[in-house]
Amino acid sequence: MTDFQLEPLYDYPQRQNVISLAAEHATAVDQDERNPFETLKELGAEGLLTLGREGSILPQAAVVFDLATECTATAFSLWAHRSTIAFFDAVGRELPEGLATGELTASTAMAPAFKDASGVGELQVHATHVEGGLELNGIISWASNLHEGGVIVLPVAVDDAPAGETAKYIVTTRVGTEGLNIKHQKGLLALDATESGFMKFENLFVPQSDILSQDVPGFLAKITAPFLTLQSSFCLGLAGAALNSAADHAEVSQGVFIDEFERAAAEYRRLRQELTELAESPATADRTRLLQMRLDVSHLATDATKLELSVIGGRAYAVKSPSGRRLRESLFLPVQSPTEGHLRYELSRAKS
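The chain above was modelled as a monomer; its predicted structure follows.
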């Protein structure tokens, strides 16, 4: 047996309950028979959705990590929800009622803003000024946590911005608002229960009060650390669970996988330390380190789940097995925004 310990990122009193809840419902969530927010509302009642709103975000990262060791879909849903809370905090806005407890869901539709800022994409929702606010038209190709009545935060290009003003804003709206049409995507390899889908905006009205920021670069600078740190946390939790499962079988086939396992375990420990350091001081976290961590931990999760499959063998190939689920969950990471291509492009620019 290879020595590997799946230790907490950060210990907190409710940790075992978090893990137990995720484990109990992982199969139902994976089969789209249970909404991840049923679990998140239970955690919200204990104050576990709003940790680290000031100072270290490590306690919140630990909750995301722990969920992902049992159910990445639930951890992913918390990442999107908690990131949106960070968006309101970044502009000093009071949270909408119910957001702190998960009674009200939240969707981060911010991928276009990050792509636009880095030059790998552009905003596809356009706004024009109308009496009392803005009118939105356009599309967002992918967002998650699109539950009825839930909060959405998104970037828009303002086509008629007054001379001298920025032409990009951050706004908020709700699922169910007139003018918003959503096509939910089902039949995914994993994460079917995350209510992900395509959004089309047709003459949707956003009141002036729901314009969160007219300084998109400043906004992104404030939210990048929590966004990427919590995203990296569920990747690391997934990788840790796969390595923990593989540890008992790493000596199969006369030990040909042992060196590979030890390399993956060493990378896991390195990234665990890196995530801990960046999470402890998000306000001063280096952006390039955050991007590199996010890329590295997604690679680790992919490698770890493949290794788990290799050492456990045929029973890990079953769709309903925890190993099979983790393998499918890991395949989402290269396409989740920021995608692997986006991350590699930004890092290549930073190093040039």
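The domain at 220-351 is CATH 1.20.140.10 (Butyryl-CoA Dehydrogenase, subunit A; domain 3).
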